[in-house]
Amino acid sequence: MSGSKKTIIRVILIIVLVCFFLPFVTVSCSGKPVETFSGLNLVFGGKYHIADNLGLGDMGSSGTSSGYGPQFFVLLAFLAGIVALAVTFMKKGKSLLLSGVMAVLGLISTILSTINISGQSKSESSELGSVLSGSLLQVRYNIGFYLILLGFAGTAAYIFYSIYSKPVTNIRADNPVYINQDPPRFCSNCGSSVTPGNDFCVNCGQKIE
Ligand SMILES: [Zn+2]
Fold it and tell me: For residue 48, what pLDDT is reported?
């Protein structure tokens, strides 16, 4: 694995991690954007104020803010990105494969987070059904979500392409001696190795066939 390939992988993974600061999802109610969450909002959890954003602030502040916990799959994707980046700094030979596996894990987690987020917004809409008079919350995925998805997919594809194409170039590099020369020969009489090109054994004088 050359250093330049690792540098490319590191740059992509750093971009992926930075994308967790970008808008990840926007939750809308009846087409009206209620709240936008970055990837990091979803990683660590937090609070949002549904009623304030819908202009229902006069209904009382106590019941209008909701907390939400860390989203498991977004957290998993974030951690996978960090581990994938960290292992590229390891000297071990398998570090690239591990980084690729982590990128795949990040990709799958990001995809699975859509089920989690959409499912949760549906359950919240039923809880708040009386307040919101039957309107449904819609989830729209933003630039951060798509860039993270693209970044993990690109990292995984690049790493596994590198691993797959590596043995083809290494067969010649590992065995340079045998390309233009005969394999080593041994004397049939005494077993000594025979210098290529010699007709007789240097040790016992036996003729080499
Ligand atoms: Zn010999």
Answer: 65
Range in 142-156, 168-182, 190-204 the model is least confident about: 168-182
Tell me, in angstroms, the distance from the centre of ligand 1 to residue 184's CA: 14
CATH class, domain 3-166, is mainly alpha
CA 181 / ligand 1 centre spacing (Å): 21
Domain ranges for the chain, please list them.
3-166
pLDDT in tens, 93-132: 778 899 999 999 999 999 998 876 666 665 555 554 434 4
- Alpha helix (H) ranges present in 19-94? 39-44, 50-53, 72-87
Token pair in block for residue 31: 């087409």
Q: How far is the CA of 177 from the centre of ligand 1 (A)?
A: 24
Taking the C-alpha atoms of residue 92 and residue 156, their distance in angstroms, rounded to an integer, is 19
